[in-house]
Amino acid sequence: METQRLWQALQLKRDAYVWMQFNQAANGDAVLIVGAVYAFWILFAVVFNLGGLPFLTRGTVAVGGFIQLFISGGFGWILGSGAVYAISTFIFESRVNFGAIVPITGYAHAPLFLVPVVSRLGLPVGASLIFLGIWSAAMMVTGFQSNLDMTQERAIGAALTAMFIWVLLVGIPGF
């Protein structure tokens, strides 16, 4: 995994997104990032007995909830990417490649890694999701502008649509 590229993406540096556009390894890295986020949520919740996350029922991990989190998170990622593709193609009438959208939205999951940490600090999960969601959306906006030649307004609209779909599918309590 290209941790240097992840760090650059977190800092909203254009170089990371240009690298994603020309390197097929970015798709695999995006899968690892998305999987790691949800695995960390589960691990952190079990170790610190956190409540308020969708897979935890005070003190025990529900196996069904664990599986549901991975499935809904993965589908949220892919369907959010699909929404960006649909908006770009049918509303903005731009020619975009779905494969260029997937790593951008996958890398944008990285700030969500901090959700259980912020929750452990005593802040509400919903409040942390708003702040970290803005960071994720900013990552997508930077990537969409860089790789898909979107205007800032269109990139913001596409990023917010992707985030909305993710929230619907993951169904994080605490909002």
Could you give the topology of this structure?
Blueprint: H1 3-10, H2 14-22, H3 25-48, E1 56-57, E2 60-61, H4 63-91, H5 98-107, H6 115-120, H7 125-147, H8 152-170
Antiparallel strand pairs: 1-2
Helix pairs in contact: 1-2, 2-7, 3-4, 3-5, 4-5, 4-8, 5-7, 7-8
Overview of this structure, please?
With 175 residues, the chain is mainly α. It contains 8 helices and 2 strands; from the N terminus they run αααββααααα. The chain has one domain. It is globular. The model has no long low-confidence stretch (mean pLDDT 81).
Percent range for β-strand residues: under 5%
> What's the β-strand tally?
2
Number of domains: 1
The profile of the biggest β sheet is: 2 strands, antiparallel
Please provide the ordered H/E string of secondary-structure elements. HHHEEHHHHH
How far do the termini sit from each other?
Answer: 33 Å
Shape descriptor reads: globular
Rounded mean pLDDT is: 81
In DSSP terms, counting alpha (H) and pi (I) runs of 4 or more, how many helices?
Answer: 8
Key terms:
2% strand, two-stranded antiparallel sheet, mainly alpha, 175 residues
